[in-house]
Amino acid sequence: MGVRPFAPAALAGTITQLGASFIKLAQVLATRNDFFDAHYLSALKTLHDDLPPMSKNEYEKVMHRAFVTLPFIRFNSTPIASASIGQVHEAWIDETTKVAVKLRREGIEKRVRADIRIVSFFNRIFRPLFSHTTRHSVESVISEFSVMIVQECSMNQERANLEKFSHIYASSGVIFPRAYGQYSCDDALVMSYEEGWRFDDREAISSSGIDIIPIIDKLVRFYTDQMLVQGYFHADPHPGNLLVTPQGQLVLLDFGMVKRVSNPTRIAIIELLRAANEQDYEAYVSASKRLGTVAYDAPVAELAEFTERMFEIFANDALDSSSMQELAFQVLEQTRNLPFKLPQEAIYILRVSAIIEGLGTTYIENFNGIKDILPILQRNIPRALGMKDSILENIIDEIKHLPDDLHALRETLRRASRGELVVELSPLQLESIGQNLQNALRPIVMAFMLALVAMGAWMGGMEEIAYGFIGAAIMRLWYR
Q: In whole angstroms, how far apart are CA 4 and each of 11, 31, 128?
């Protein structure tokens, strides 16, 4: 008798009961159609890490550890928000200075580390059941998730992220809280209190006469700058972390999850966007391979056809959002066995993209990345590549780099003439070579094992059994 899987709603409920770590892990996995079908994905996307506040005893322990002397004239002990890692309280430093105080949950780091050990343990047990590509993706998710959630447990780390982010994007036009370092510690982060409506509070924003379209455009351009230009981005822009002020300004909160995009990944994303804009689907697949979301040895023609079909669906203005989703899942179902992957660097990029697209659909019918976001991204590609605003500035910049380029060329020619030129393979190429070698050796190893068993049977006087194993070894080599 087989084991019956949880129904989608039951799975989501069980994950909620397991707590913070499993909720956050499921939120990441909710972007993967090759792990789950449409019904499970819909259920997992409803998961939120809103949890009951700490008990009175836990709250008092954290407060005593965080503030030997309370620096506030008033402190509201009832939290205004309570999530998986911490809870937020209102407080006043003086009569005119209101602050938000984020308290780390008592014992959360120990619980998170225990959860990571449990997840890693079960991954080792079930690892043989996954294909090579899926196994790689699951391990990447767990590895990246483990690093990020442990960092998120530190209020000192979040304060450092906030201060660095505020400095890099000071001219972005987006508002960030101001950290009060003199009052903060690893158990508590004290920040300026920012007022506004949640980004998805459509009724309140609309009734205030705020035009949300320019704000959505600013959000997309802001994340374009983060991921394509600066390479340093806020990895958790869910509706609770994005506020819209009565003046129509955008506020970004919660800097526990901040990631850096490596330069090769950033360039791969830029090439991906350029290929998408030019509808060069083979170039799109090639860029996806460099990004690591498609296995290096994946069939280009088949994936290019799949990409073209997906673009046609989401670029069709005649389809409503439900029809788009239904058609997209039909196409994805046909490609379930294709070697899609989820490398560590792409995990949060894909999650951020999915969240922003979801925020857009709150206000714009049929909002999607192809027809609404891609044009904005395309306009920013020159800036992402470091190009200046005018042709003259670009010429001057190239002239400045000319001596370095000539030196690099001369050095390359010198090494080539001496036979010292070294060619490096990318990690993706090495992985593909290793997998191909493993596949090639597997039948040889199996035939060798069968031959050893045949030899043992022969020495034991079981000649008929020995012939059978020898025949099996030959057939394994012949049909490899």
A: 12, 23, 20
**If 0-12 CB within 10 Å is exposed, 13-18 middle and 19+ buried, where does residue 294 land?**
buried
Q: Determine which helix (DSSP H) or strand (DSSP E) holds 74, and give its type and residue range.
A: strand 74-75
- Per-residue tokens: 366: 């049929």
Cα 175 to chain center, whole Å? 24
Q: Rounded to whole angstroms, how far apart are CA atoms 275 and 214?
A: 27
Specify the amino acid at residue 42. S
* Nearest CA-CA partner of 264 in 231, 306, 226: 231
Question: Position of tokens 């300026």?
Answer: 192
**Closest by alpha carbon to 426, among 286, 320, 253?**
286
Q: What is the full DSSP assignment across 387-427? A: --SSHHHHHHHHHHHHHHHHHHHHHHHHHHHHT----PPPH
Whether 12 and 43 have beta carbons less than 8 Å apart is answered as yes
Tokens of 442: 């597997």
Main-chain dihedrals φ then ψ at residue 258, nearest 5 degrees: -125, 130
- List the structure tokens of 436: 């191909």
Q: Which of 24, 32, 97 is nearest to 343 (CA)?
A: 32
Q: Is the dihedral of CA 155, 161, 166, 172 positive or negative?
A: negative
**Span 50-106+154-193: which CATH code?**
3.30.200
Give residue limits of the domains in the chain: 8-49+114-134, 50-106+154-193, 200-387, 389-423, 429-478
Q: Which whole-number Å values give the CA distances from 374 to 107, 215, 217, in the listed order?
A: 43, 17, 12
Tens digit of each residue's pLDDT, the chain (480 residues): 455 667 877 877 777 777 667 776 776 666 555 456 667 766 766 666 667 899 999 999 999 999 989 999 999 999 998 888 899 999 999 999 999 999 999 998 888 888 888 878 877 777 666 655 555 566 667 777 777 788 888 999 999 999 999 999 999 999 999 999 999 999 999 999 999 999 888 889 989 999 988 998 898 889 888 888 888 889 888 778 899 999 999 999 999 888 888 888 888 888 888 888 788 888 888 888 887 777 777 778 888 888 888 788 777 777 666 666 677 666 666 666 666 666 666 777 777 777 787 777 778 777 776 777 777 777 777 766 665 555 455 455 556 656 666 666 777 777 677 766 666 555 655 555 566 666 667 777 787 888 888 888 888 878 888 888 888 878 777 766
Query: What are the φ/ψ torsions at residue 45 (nearest 5 degrees)?
Result: -70, -10
Is 268:291 a contact under the CB 8 Å cutoff? yes
3-class SS at 362? coil
C-alpha to C-alpha distance for 102 and 79, rounded to whole angstroms: 9
Radius of gyration of the chain (CA): 27
Residue 127 DSSP class: G
